[in-house]
Amino acid sequence: NGTGTAHTAPGSATDVTGLTGAFTALYGTAPEGVWAAPGRVNLIGEHTDYNDGFVLPLALPHTARAAVARRADGALRLHSADVPGGVVEVAAGELAPGARDLGWAAYPAGVVWALREAGHEAGGIDLHLRSAVPTGAGLSSSAALETVTALAVNDLYGLGLPPGELARLAQRAENDFVGVPCGIMDQTASACCAEGHALHLDTRDLTRRQVPFDLAAEGLRLLVVDTRVSHDLADGAYAERRASCEEAARRLGVPALRDVTPEELAQAPGRLAGPGEETLFRRARHVVTENRRVEEVVALLAAGDTHAVGPLLTAGHASLRDDFEVSCAELDLAVGTACAAGALGARMTGGGFGGSAIVLVTEAAAVTVAEAVSAAFAAAGHRAPRIFPAVPSAGARRLA
Ligand code: ADP
Ligand code: MG
C-alpha cells in the first residue's frame, strides 16, 4: 500500500537485504543491484512547469527501492510488493504505448520503452519494487517508480546517461506510454535533488541550481499534511488548465506564460479579449505571480531568511485557490488551520484537488500546529490526515 509503515527503515542495510531476499525468492537468482529514488514536495512553483517556468522541489526521505537484474532474453518481468497481482511480463522489443493494459507496470515498462525509443540499448530486466512514497498523495510516487527504474537500467546496461536526461526520458514514459501529461518537475526532483537542498529548476532550458535549505539550523520544520483525498479527479481539470495557459500565451503573443511579468499582465488585460477572458486572466495571473514567488523564495533562502518564506507560501495558496481554482475543502482547511495556529505559512503542493499541503513552522510550534490541523479535520468529519516532516533528502542513487 506504499506507506512503508510496516517495513524496516527504507534504504537501510536490513531493507536492502529484504529486497534482495524477496527478489531471489521471486526470480530464482540474486539481483545485480539495488537502487532508490525519492518522492518529492514542491516548496513553491505550482502549475508553472508546463509554462516554461520555475519550480523549487525538494526530495523526501521516502523512496521507491528496486532490486534489478538484466535478462538476456529481452523480457521484462516486473513485480511490486505494494500491489497484489504477481509478476507482469512483457517483451522489451514489443513495448508500444497502449498496446496492452499493463496496470502499474506501465510506469517501469514505459521507462524501458522511452530509453529504447531514444536509441539506447536497454534490454530485458527482472525487477522487484517496494516503495515508501504514498501513492496518489501528490508526492510523486509515480516519478519515484520511473526514476528508480531509469537509474537501474542506466547503470546495468552502461548507458552513461546523466540524471537530467534520465528524468527527461522518465517524463516521456509518463506522457507518452502511461498517458499522463505531466511536466518535467517530478522526475527531475527525484533524479537530481541533493540532501539539505531545494532544487531550483528552470523548466525552459532545464538548468538546475541546488539551493541550501537547512531547516534544522534555523529551528524550522516543513510539515507535509497528506489529506488522503485522492487527486484522481484532477485529470480533466489538469488538461483544461494546460489548455487555458496555452490559450492565454497565444493571445498575449508570447511563446509561454514564462515570458510575461506580473506587471505586464496587469497592464494588458485587453490583450486577452475573447471567449473566457476573465477566467484566462486569472489563470495567467496565477502562473506569472507564481514564477515571481519562486524567484523571491530563492532570494530569501540565499539570504538565509527562511522564516520570511512563509507568507509567500500562503500567497501561493491563495493564488492556486482563487485564480487557478485547483484547491479543495480539505487543502484549504489544512492551510487555514495551520496558519491560524501559528504556522509561518502553508500551501497546497502538487497538482491539487486533494493530495498534500506543506506547512512551514517553527520547531516550537510544530506539534501545536499539527494537532490543530488534525482536530479541525476531525471536527469537519474528514478522514484523519497523515502529517510528517519533509526533510530535504538525496535524489536517486544506487544502494547496493
Ligand atoms: P502520485 O505520483 O502523486 O503518487 P500518480 O497517480 O501520478 O500519483 O501515480 C500513482 C500510480 O503510480 C499508482 O496508481 C501506481 O500505478 C503507480 N505506483 C506508485 N507507487 C507504486 C508502487 N509502490 N507499486 C506499484 N505501483 C506504484
Ligand atoms: Mg505522479
UniProtKB/TrEMBL annotation:
It comes from the Bacteria. The record marks R40 as: Transition state stabilizer. Keywords: ATP-binding, Carbohydrate metabolism, Cytoplasm, Galactose metabolism, Kinase, Magnesium, Metal-binding, Nucleotide-binding, Transferase. It is an enzyme of class 2 (transferase). Substrate binds at E46, H47, T48, D49, Y238. Residues 107-192 form the GHMP kinase N-terminal domain. The keyword Flavoprotein does not apply. The active site is at D186. Catalyzes the transfer of the gamma-phosphate of ATP to D-galactose to form alpha-D-galactose-1-phosphate (Gal-1-P). This is Galactokinase.
